[in-house]
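Onboarding guide, step 5: your first structure request.
Type a short instruction followed by the sequence, for example:

Predict the 3D structure of this protein.
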Amino acid sequence: MIETIKLLLSGMIIGVANVIPGVSGGTMAVILNIYDRLVSAVSFKNLKNNLLFLFKIALGAGAGILLFSTAVKLCLERFPMQTNFTFMGLIIGSIPMIYRRAAGSSAKKGPQKIRIPGLIAFILALGAMLSMGLADRSAFSQSVQTVLTLPLAIQLFFGGALSAFAMILPGISGSFIMLLLGVYGTVIAAISSLNIWILLPMAAGCCIGLLAGAKLVAVLLGKFPQQTYCAILGLIAGSLVSIFPGFTVSLGGAVSVLLLLLAAAATWWFSVQSK
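The system replies with structure tokens like these:
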């Protein structure tokens, strides 16, 4: 029962994260220490044996999107600095855990230093995230469409596939990918109004992207563990640029820093307890 509640809550957090541009559901899965299990469960080989686990995560994610996405968006609108600094704290607190995995992922006994291939993977992933984080999001069209047409269905399908693939990768926001593809406004409006016809092609694309992405990551973790964890570390570290809302020296700024420190400490403590 306790395990079920944990999985439902984890799914809720992942679901809420995926509707916020710049915040990655994959990052939340790493922080919650279920990323490896989730990737393994979604891969074709283990899918049948993990349906109950995936159902609990998916149920929690759906509930999180429906119940809390509006509240989080309201916090982002009214308290953007404090909310984003909290997410930044969660990410910063997870970095030591990911580094430990990268350093020890290819060692048979004890920790191992990061090798050159791992360092290259980190730099490439960090550079990709920095370029995405510095992109001008206002330049992308976000017109809201409420009537499903064939061109829109194709756009939603591929948008769902690419965003779901991105969700598998910690640091890359699925919502940010939808923003780049111009379907974010349409999807958020469809979720708010429960427009099933708009959501169906999006959901179909998400299923395809999720399965393909999980299979790829599972293969990479199996064959190139240190390079993969180093790339994940680069993606997560680079995502801080996408989330950073700016800073002002004020009471709100002081509260933001305090929330960042508390969130980082909580994530670090959680990772130590889960080690």
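Each response can be followed by summary notes, for example: The two ends are 22 Å apart (CA to CA).
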